[in-house]
Amino acid sequence: MVCQVLEKLGYYVFYSDRVARDISISNQHVISRIKSTFGDEVYVNEQLNRAYLASLVFTNPELLAKLNHIIHPAVARAFEEWCNLYNLEKILFKESAIIFETGLHKQLHKVILVTAPVEVRIRRVMERDGITEQEVRIRMGNQMPEEKKIELADFIIVNDSKTLLLPQLINIISNLLA
């Protein structure tokens, strides 16, 4: 939602997860490495079987690290190319669920953390991805606790369906442009 508002305000947003999904079905080098790591059955009709892959990696930190080692460099290259494309813009935004976990925050000028109560986040992911609460909680268990992220972030946005987003974003953008 926050990224959609930013786009409506005229800013460009790089969606890391979307790019990772695209790369996983279009980049032959990435596809080959995923198949060799997780088996050919991870692809069905040339589409990544995300549910199967998730069942493997989100319960096994070693396999998750292997997947990240395959995907993250390709996404980083795509982000660099994207930044070059929009290099005249004053502000560019990068959406990513695991900015701190991957050390990506060190490559960014500022980090905006979007927070919401745990139950709201769980419900949203269940609706978005069509997965169970348990699956969401397992994925969240692979992420840094929100309290730690709050300490590391430069700005915080509350997206709890009660607090207005636009005033928060305008304040942050004003700070970034100052």
Q: Ends: how far apart?
A: 25 Å
Query: How does the helix and strand content classify structurally?
Result: mainly alpha
* Percentage of residues in DSSP E strands: 5-15%
Strand order of the largest sheet: 1-4
Q: Helix segment count? A: 9
The sequence of SSEs as H and E is: HEHHEEHHEEHHHEH
Percentage of helical residues? 55-70%
CATH architecture: 3-Layer(aba) Sandwich
How would you sum up the major sheet? 2 strands, parallel
CATH superfamily: P-loop containing nucleotide triphosphate hydrolases
Report on the structure:
There is one protein chain. By secondary structure, this protein is mainly alpha-helical. It has one domain: P-loop containing nucleotide triphosphate hydrolases (Rossmann fold), CATH 3.40.50.300. 58% of the residues lie in helices and 11% in strands. It has nine helices and six strands. A two-stranded parallel ribbon has the order 1-4. The longest helix is centred in the middle third of the chain and has 25 residues.
Short structural summary:
This protein has 178 residues and is mainly α. The chain is 58% helix and 11% strand. The longest helix is centred in the middle third of the chain and has 25 residues, at 61-85.
